[in-house]
Amino acid sequence: MQASNTPSELEWAFRAAEADGPDGPGTARRRLLPGSTLDVFTEVRFPSHDWALVVLSDERLQDRDLVLATGLTCRTKNGSIEVVAAPETESKLFCTLLADLLDQMPSSGRHSAAAVARRLTAWQRMLCRGPSTLMTAEERVGLYGELLVFRDVMLQAVGEDAVRSWTGPSGTPQDFTHLDASVEVKTTARQAEGSCRISNERQLDDADLRTLFLVHQEVTSVMEGLTLGELIDEMRGHPFVRADVQWFENSLLEYGWHDSQRDRYTQDRYALTRRRCFRVRDDFPRLTPTRLPMGIAGVTYHLDLSACAPYQVDYDAMRRSLAATAVEE
């Protein structure tokens, strides 16, 4: 990414174009990414004073309109993409989004515009969090725990398919799914936790799965532990992650992580202190759609882990089971 495409430089360029704009209808357009196969422009539109990023492409994309936040919209039409911010939109947020899109945008390739569209979908999920896009302490611990399982289990069990097995950020019932095997992860920073919170009746439902595991982890805050940012950087350095890095980055954004906020999370340093794995099957204590009375849905409950002891499995056995699923693909 060129220095002129940082959030602060983008905002300066928009404001300079706005000050020099016409009194009547018109646009002030500036080309970006001259080495890209895409035609990419910033625009200031008059007299509305809307700011926009325009990506022109002849790729076949689904036409759609997205509301990313109040005053911030995206339109995909005939393969081209427009991201438009009305004057009331927070300029810092808009320019951070644009700088991120430009940074993630492939410089070449047949599906560059499609990559931009996927990144915008990830941004929509993040911005749906509300006025504050910062993750809560519970969410940070949850992301930390999922990345630990990603690193220690999925990368070793399913190899290069591990990146796309991390499906939870996009809204699937379980955190990881590969073929007909899934893993749900629960992580707490409280020691001696005797239960875990199950978010809905689908989370421990194995009706369409051959194998479902529940992993419960405890982490503790220690000076020599890893920050969330350090763990993410470690993951980015793995060759399987580097090979599919855009998918990984989109999943991080969907979860709620963006590098521009990493300094807000440096106070958290964690180390794994306990990990328990359970095979969810047969009469495992749980609520599922078929076990609920008619008319009841959206159930959240706490699972007593002591009642799950008969279903506990060895960590290596779980990993071998997932690896066997990958081999049978």
Protein described:
By secondary structure, the chain is an alpha+beta fold. It has 2 domains: 3-127, no CATH class; 138-327, no CATH class. It is 32% helix and 26% strand. Helix 4 packs parallel to helix 6 (228-236). The longest helix has 22 residues, at 137-158. The model has no long low-confidence stretch (mean pLDDT 91).
Strand order, biggest sheet?
A: 1-2-3-6-5-4
Class computed from helices, strands and strand pairing: alpha+beta
Can you give the helix content as a percent range?
25-40%
Oligomer: single chain
- Secondary structure tally: strands: 13
Shape category: elongated
H and E string:
HEEEEEEHHHHEEEEHHHEEEH
Q: Span between N and C termini? A: 38 Å
Q: Work out the helix count.
A: 9
Q: Give the integer mean of the pLDDT values.
A: 91
Indicate the proportion of strand residues. Answer: 25-35%
Can you tell me the number of structural domains? Answer: 2
List the defining traits of the structure above.
alpha+beta, 9 helices, six-stranded antiparallel β-sheet, 2 domains, 13 strands, 329 residues
